[in-house]
Design a protein that fits this description.
By secondary structure, this protein is mainly alpha-helical. The protein has one domain: Arp2/3 complex 21 kDa subunit ARPC3. Helices cover 70% and strands 1% of the residues. The protein is built from 9 helices and 2 strands; from the N terminus they run H-H-H-E-E-H-H-H-H-H-H. A two-stranded antiparallel sheet has the order 1-2. A hairpin with an 8-residue loop joins strand 1 and strand 2. The protein is globular.
Length: 271
């Protein structure tokens, strides 16, 4: 969320004449600003970390006790693969695509593509860790302008797609289960992301900006006259936004995964 042009996926609201009451990063020493912002928002960050820990634990338990076809990768390679895919995902977070059917504060990023490839190759735990690291990378280089709310949303909504898709695929690694996993992941992304916006994100951002919800709804009305309430904003903007993201991410991942997997396998074998 930023006053000018730089915005957060799932969260960025640009409101002329209004400034965030929280510290934002706008150049200079990003690390010092990052640490200062962490101190100012420690309670919320604790909730974020607990959410990450909970999702990590769920992924680990599923991977440990339910999924039997785990890839045999050394610890060093595992860390390197996760780091590389997380870095790629973090870089993709900087590329945001505006959409004609949604208010300007909704911008599409494709950072889930490297995360999905990572989690398909290594398992659910790698997917959750990669989602977390990509957001951390973005924070270190770009900062936060939403008091970490938008960043938390990106992580949570991303996991709602990546985790189900990974679990389904790793039950039986076939082309059909990969497609099924991504379809289920897209449905989860659309349902969870839309409800999360309606129940938490939109009210939270209205409070952060000190503005009435009607002002945010009005930004939706400006692009679609059918948007007249929170429910219609979600129905006509958030639902298609999340659905489009899930479809595009799934399609590109489907086209790329096997090629990337072959390269990684060849790299492991030293060919």
């Amino acid at each position: 969320m930023k006053e000018d042009t730089e915005q957060e996926s799932y969260s960025a609201v640009s409101v002329p004449g209004r400034r965030m009451p929280f510290r934002a990063f706008s150049g200079g020493n990003h690390m010092n600003n990052f640490l200062s912002s962490v101190k100012e928002n420690l309670a919320f960050l604790l909730v974020c970390l607990l959410t990450f820990a909970g999702l990590f634990l769920i992924a680990w338990l599923i991977e440990r006790f339910l999924l039997k076809s785990r890839r045999n990768v050394s610890g060093a390679r595992y860390i390197c693969y996760v780091a590389v895919f997380s870095a790629l995902a973090g870089a993709l977070m900087f590329l945001e695509i505006p959409l004609f059917f949604a208010p300007s504060f909704y911008k599409l990023d494709l950072s889930e593509i490297p995360v999905l490839i990572c989690t398909f190759f290594l398992g659910p735990v790698a997917g959750v860790v990669s989602e977390f690291l990509k957001v951390l990378i973005k924070l270190l280089f770009k900062g936060t302008t939403t008091a970490f709310v938008g960043d938390f949303a990106n992580f949570a909504v991303g996991c709602s797609m990546v985790l189900p898709a990974s679990i389904v695929y790793h039950i039986r690694k076939t082309r059909s289960t990969a497609i099924l996993g991504m379809v289920i992941g897209t449905v989860c992304l659309t349902v969870f992301g839309s409800l999360f916006n309606a129940v938490y994100l939109l009210p939270r951002f209205a409070a952060l900006f000190g503005m009435p919800m009607d002002a945010i709804i009005g930004m939706g009305t400006a692009v679609n006259a059918h948007i007249t309430s929170v429910s219609t904003l979600v129905l006509f903007a958030v639902v298609p936004f999340n659905l489009l993201k899930g479809i595009v991410v799934s399609l590109i991942t489907f086209l790329l995964y096997k090629r990337v997997e072959k390269l990684l396998i060849r790299e492991r074998s030293g060919v």
